[in-house]
Amino acid sequence: MDASNLVRTGPRGLGPGGVEVGPLALGLWRFTGTDVGRNAELIEAGLDLGMNLVDIADVYGLDWGGTGFGACEENLGAVLRARPDLRDRMVLATKGGIVPPVPYDSGAAAMRSACEASLDRLGTDRVDLYQVHRPDMFTHPSEVAAALDGLVADGLVGAVGVSNYTPAQTRALAAHLEAPLVSTQPEYSAACLDPLRDGTLDLCSEMGMVPLAWSPLAGGRLVGSGASAGDVRPELLATLDRLAEREGVDRAAVCVAFVLAHPTAPVAIVGSQQPERLEALQAALSVQLDRNDVYDLVEASEGQPLP
User: Fold this and answer.
1) Residues designated catalytic
2) What tens digit of pLDDT does each residue of 20-75 get?
3) Which sign, positive or negative, has the C-alpha torsion 9, 10, 13, 16?
């Protein structure tokens, strides 16, 4: 990699001596189709492209045309039963703790039950990474930690992480855990810079966690125009387009490259359900972004110059 290029394209290790994952991950929150053959083609395409981290959650299936809670895990389970060879190639990550309509329950019994139900739907006896999907503010972190440590001790999960946690919530949980937190999953994109500002990425540097960035295209708004771009600043879209033209890629590739440029080496979770789009997003790994480029994007995103 050119010394001036900030885009980090190498593998990321989940925890000391843990498994390695690629810089792009396959997100399955839209994995609502029930055609097992077509679903297997998508999973295999992602794995062939080096997207060995496959990210799912028990709650996926309540939207995007799904049939309800657990539907996406059931669809992935059907693929893994038909193609068990694919399980051997992936780092399988799922999440629990959202229990509609409660909405959150990270109590010990609930977390154990959620994990076991996920394993059953997925048709596997172990997931490689289990994450608390959103913080339950009315469960003490010591209880959450005991549940997670129990899942690790019993061999049901290989490693644990959090999703949508604040840095303070992450530290509080880590203080009670025996197992290390290997990942945190925030929303992060050129349109959502909160992890840069709220200490999430700083905490990853401190604790050695891998940031798993969800919605690196801001739910599609960063690749939209007009009304489909929502509240994204026009100057941000213009800056992305300028860099995309310079690099000979589409806007989406620059968006993903921006996420990969942080020194904590985030993983960008991409959610396309089209193999050809997954292949196109691989162009992010060839994008050359220097310090001027990433700060231009930050300033365009926030609408003001940095001091």
Assistant:
1) 60
2) 999 999 999 999 999 999 999 999 999 999 999 999 999 999 988 899 999 999 99
3) negative
Find, among 92, 98, 91, 25, the residue nearest to 61 by Cα: 98
How far, in Å, CA of 37 to CA of 131, rounded? 28
Strands 127-132 and 181-185: unpaired
Token pair 């992936």 is found at: 90
Cα distance between residue 247 and residue 284, in whole Å: 10
The CA angle 37-43-46, to the nearest 5 degrees, is: 140
Residue given tokens 């059931």 in the structure block: 74
Instruction: Sort 199 into a burial class: Cβ within 10 Å, 0-12 / 13-18 / 19+.
Output: middle
pTM score: 0.96
Chain-centre distance for alpha carbon 39 = 19
Nearest to 1 by CA among 248, 245, 24, 10: 10
Q: What's the number of CA atoms in the CB half-sphere (13 Å) around residue 89? A: 18
